[in-house]
Amino acid sequence: MLVDYPDIFTNLNEITNHPTIINTMSDHYERVKIELQQMKAVESEAAADKEQLSPASVTSVPAEVSFAARRDLSRSSINGRSRSKSRSKADGHERQVNGKQLSDLTPQKSDYSQEKGQSRLSNEQNIKGTLRLLKGKTAANGHVESCQREKDLKCEHHGKEDGSKVAKKRRAVTVDTSKAKTSLEALKMSIRQLKWKEFPMGRRTACDIYWHGVSFHDNENIVSGQVNKFPAGMIEMLRKINLSRAVRTMQELFPEEYNFYPRSWILPEEYQLFSTQIRLLKDNDSTLKPTFIVKPDSGSQGDGIYLIRDPADLRVISGSQIKQAVVQEYIQKPLLIDKLKFDIRLYVLVRSLEPLEIYIAKEGLSRFCTEPYQEPSQKNLSHVFMHLTNYSLNVHSGNFVHSDSCSTGSKRTFSSVLYRIASKGVDIKKVWSDIIALVIKTVIALVPELKVYYQADIPPGKPGPTCFQILGFDILLMKNLKPVLLEVNANPSMRIEHEQEVSPGVYEYVPSPVDEEVKVGVIRDTLRLMDPAQRKQHVTSNTEGGSPEDAIVVETGSDEKESLTDSLPSLCLKQVFPKYTKQFNYLRVVERIAAIFLRFLGVKGTMRLGPTGFRTFIRNCKLSNSSFSMASVDILYIDITRRWAGMLPDSREAGMSLQAFIEAFFYLAARRFKAVLLREQVLLLLEVCEGALEGQSHSEKPRPQRSHPAQSSAPNAFSSPALTRRHHLRHQPLQLSAKANTEN
Predict the structure, then answer these.
(1) Is 496 buried (19+), middle (13-18) or exposed (0-12) by CB count in 10 A?
(2) Which of 132, 186, 183, 176 is nearest to 154 (CA)?
(3) Between the CA of residue 368 and those of 387, 408, 695, what are the distances in Å?
(4) Is pTM, for the whole model, over 0.85?
(5) Alpha helices, DSSP H, located in 169-254
(6) 211 SS3 class
(7) Distances (CA, A) of 138 to 71, 88, 148, 149, 457
(8) Alpha helix stretches (DSSP H) within 49-179
(9) What residues contact residue 283 under an 8 Å CB cut-off, 6+ apart?
(10) How many helices (H) and strands (E) does the chain have?
(11) Of the four, 289, 477, 585, 632, which is 20 to 30 A from 405 by CA?
């Protein structure tokens, strides 16, 4: 609170203008007046800062700032009185304090003091009460000592308490929500619960967090803070074709670990391959009648998805316009509840790419079909309410049930589903463990390409924000409780209301308790984890992890140990990486290849490797020899680059992409180490390249911002076989995969 000073100055003017003491008064009052004015200016500045500090911290700051000023004022006042013999003298009373003899000086009663005693007493009380001036005594040497030791100790202790309040009561975190769009209501609720500051219209100065509704580039002028979207790479990588390619690369190296993703073909480029494999499958076993699901590459909310049983039924190749799509094996035996098929929407927070941090929400959504499930046949292939779990489709069904309960209706919480299946004796911890493994492996498959996109938008050394993102994982449980990845959404819906028909033809949005229960917690706890104070904490990996074969221990009832506000509920986001680093770090092989790719890109902001960069890579890693000349290197570069340019028609940048470089790396590994399987071949070539580059960095001046931190975090051993890229799709038998799809 700002101290009120007018009475003090009024009384000082009366004192200085009294006719009986004008000639005997020292300059000491003038100094007191000046010092009081300075103190008033200090507290005025503190009050001006009140908008940026909490009330508790504002009141404590002036107390600490003015403590020394009050002490100095007390010293000057008492010393001034001791020098004016007409107004004061020693009373002869002495006390022993800290081993020193102190004299208690009191003002002498003059005619002025007799006439104006009440006025002086009033002034002293005013100063004592308003400014909390300390009573003091002067020693023989003129220094002021405390005459009340206990009060000094209390003031010192109170000052420490005020300091601790300042440390705890920091300024509120600022959030720019001007681009939030559909997630706005849940975001507003989360900010209110956290008692942070929202800027719905943006802010001229920088905010701590920027919440975008669609992409990183919703706001182009961000150079600091944190953004809830990664650069364009996240949207691109989670398109159905790119996701399939990323997982397919990992399936070549780790087929057993990545068998949670259905067998996929990319259309139209792999149409002939798809047709040939289906024909061979039916020729070998006429009883098999597999079903396939076709998903447009750029489709969303179930738009354009349909089922087929024969390649001739593909719509993407009919007509004059060819559309890109992914065709996958259809899971014919899903887990059913109330005779209905359902999927799971889990929210995953990628808090950081380097170091990699992954969190999974402990609660999710279960979205049900609205027509009882039957295994696909030629008659029911078009029944979308039976086979497709998309909420945006089933909400238009007459059987869709909006429920205020989390355990009934067409949209429920995932925990209610787990409770239902747990009542039948199912091991819920095993289900969660498999889901966590699926999420971690999927993110590991995406990270290499994401890092390339990230450095293209925010090159090393360029000022820019840090990024995080909430992803929506759509997972299906098979009848044997094995989780299957359907797709990953870069911009999952965060609406907490749903559209409801209130009268014929009239719709309005009404609150959805199930959505609010799940989504508000996800957004709120994401903000808590991205709190700038929390981001400064040191990130450590789990040092108690076991070998890759060790099971994931799902702890029940344990919360993340974060120093967060006690009034808020415990975090609904569980860290799974780097917590389980030792179990999954051996999978991060492609990241090491991407690190080499980034090293030789050369130009900041580019995502394609030119022919010179590729030749430099071959030369520095010492991969050329008499049987593999630089001319052969150029031919390899041209062949792979042209083929991938045809598969990526939307790309405007020339050169070799990361996926093309990975294929070239696999080719070089298979060529150099012919006697072992692909995983071992890739490992051996990585050791050769990393050893050569490390030796070069020791012998030459290191080039800044070229090496990638992910190199040192990847594993050094492999254990499972794999096939080469070109022969993987053509020779892996489809029959086994189709049979596995129909197992109980």
Answers:
(1) buried
(2) 132
(3) 10, 10, 57
(4) no
(5) 184-194, 233-237, 240-253
(6) strand
(7) 13, 13, 13, 14, 68
(8) 55-83, 111-115, 117-131, 149-168
(9) none
(10) 24, 23
(11) 477
